[in-house]
Amino acid sequence: MLIPYIVYFEDKPVSVSAILNNNGIASLEFVATLPEYRRRGFAREASITAIRDAFAAGAKIITLRAFYPANLLYQSLGFQVYY
């Protein structure tokens, strides 16, 4: 099941993330922010909420795919880089 998280600023949706949870193995997906609202913490807030809810719903692990510079956000949230 894919669960979306939307961050609103002044009644406008500005950022989104989603969690795909499959029997305890979850994936953080579709993290994005409108260009004019970037670097204000909206993607971070959407991701933190999605991660928290995924663990509360029984996720044992959360994975994601990211490329630089987005991976800097994810590393700051506790994700590790594997090659």
Describe the structure.
The chain is globular, with a radius of gyration of 13 Å. Helix 1 links the parallel strand 3 (25-33) and strand 4 (61-63). 23% of the residues are buried. The protein starts with a strand and ends in a 7-residue tail after the last helix. The model has no long low-confidence stretch (mean pLDDT 91). It has one domain (2-76): Aminopeptidase, CATH 3.40.630.30. It contains 2 helices and 4 strands, in the order βββαβα. It has 83 residues and is an alpha+beta fold. A 4-stranded mixed beta sheet has the order 1-2-3-4, with helices on one face.
Would you kindly provide a brief summary of this structure?
This protein is α+β, with helices and mostly antiparallel strands and 83 residues long. The protein has helices at 42-56, 70-76; strands spanning 2-9, 12-22, 25-33, 61-63. It is globular and about 35 Å long.
Beta fraction of the residues? 35-45%
The count of DSSP E runs of length 2 or more, i.e. the number of strands, is 4
CATH class: Alpha Beta
Which structural class is indicated by helix and strand composition?
alpha+beta
Radius of gyration: 13 Å
Distance between the termini: 27 Å
Total individual domains: 1
Tally the helices: 2
Q: Which architecture does the CATH hierarchy give at level 2?
A: 3-Layer(aba) Sandwich
Measured as a percent range, the helix fraction is 25-40%
Order of helices and strands: EEEHEH
CATH topology: Aminopeptidase
- What is the molecular shape? globular
Biggest sheet architecture: 4 strands, mixed
Mean of the pLDDT scores?
91
- Under CATH, the homologous superfamily reads Gcn5-related N-acetyltransferase (GNAT)
Strand order of the largest sheet: 1-2-3-4
Low-confidence stretches: none
